[in-house]
Amino acid sequence: MTDIHATRVTTADGQAVTVTSRSTTITDWAARYLGSWWNAAATEAADVTGPVVAADVDPGEVAALTGIVTAGQPQETEYANHRMLHTTDQASTTAVQPDAGLAYRWEPAERRLRIVGSDETAVAAAAARLAREVIRGQLLTDGWEILHASAVTRPDGTTLLSLGDKGAGKTTCGFLLGRAGWHLLANDRVFVRAENDGTVRILPWPSAAAIGLGLLDAMNWYGPVRERVLTGEKLHPTQHQRVTDALMAGDREPLWKRSGKELKPQFFPDQLHTWLGLTLATEGRAAGLLFPQITPGAEPALSNEPRAIGEGDFFSASTEDRYPDVFGLLPMTGPSTTLAAQLAALPHQALVLGHDTAANTELLKKAATQLL
């Protein structure tokens, strides 16, 4: 009988899920993907309690679950950039992604999500992704919300959040301050919750980090990253082949899809530290807000433009684009007025960033000093 391996993933607030598999590749992947920002540790499968993501390579089970879905009238959606067909009855939700060779079955009464596929890497990536979704549901149930922001902390937990629309410079702020000595808590999304003492607590959202070739070059990371790729080290498998080819060839110009979306190198969370030298944080408390806006050709400067937290800065189950709640893991909640008010009361600063990373860094350090 094949041994079952298990990795238990726990947030700094105590929410947890266990990933089990006959393959250590799958459980190790969960530890790598989630463990840099949450705690992930091997455990005995026999001792597992609470929700479980059980993931294995099993083409026969994929075929069986596919038969269940296609025998009915499945709904169709896009999940993690692949088409998904899914059906729900009183006991479970069953789903398949034919193009990815993956199948799923969620049994809420058992709190067990089964994931099977024909490719080990695809199964491992799906298991880590859905383990995060299980924990997301627990966090939202416990009063946490998701803010579209990057975050950096000091060793004492003092945290700066950077907010704005896509392309405003949230990720740039996080990386520049991270390289200037702050600890990176998140590069795109964070969990936030208003506490009874009037503070706003922050937890990270573990994910692969997408860094454009232009930003990679501007941060002086392009050369070291390319050297690692040339020696055979791998970035996250969701990275488009055109990006890998560009790194291999030494091309630094940004790459674009026909849709206008930029294609970017995709880093595992641990590679932010091992490849890029950033220190990662596991929690913090909000102390100030930055509202950047990158303007090509502009001189970096503080701005008096008014900017406030809005409903569009929050994610919810109804606004999620990449990971719709197919399995019913998430409670239907909206932004908390208490949380929004506590965030709005924090010191905040709008700023204009250009393409001079040294000047941008000095401005960010100045803004951080003034806010705190």
Characterization of this structure:
With 372 residues, the protein is an alpha+beta fold. It folds into 3 domains: 5-141, no CATH class; 145-208 and 268-371, 3-Layer(aba) Sandwich (Rossmann fold); 212-266, no CATH class. 29% of the residues lie in helices and 30% in strands. The protein has helices at 24-35, 59-71, 120-141, 170-179, 213-218, 222-230, 241-249, 271-274, 337-344, 357-371, and strands at 5-10, 16-21, 39-43, 52-57, 75-79, 82-88, 93-97, 102-107, 112-117, 145-153, 158-163, 183-186, 189-194, 200-204, 209-210, 255-256, 262-263, 266-267, 284-294, 301-303, 314-315, 348-353. A 9-stranded mixed β-sheet has the order 3-1-2-4-9-8-7-6-5, sandwiched between helices. Strands 10-11-19-14-13 form a 5-stranded mixed beta barrel. The protein has a two-stranded antiparallel sheet with strand order 15-18. Strand 13 and strand 14 form a beta hairpin. Helix 1 packs across helix 3. The longest helix has 22 residues, at 120-141. 42% of the residues are buried. The model has no long low-confidence stretch (mean pLDDT 93). InterPro entries: P-loop_NTPase (IPR027417).
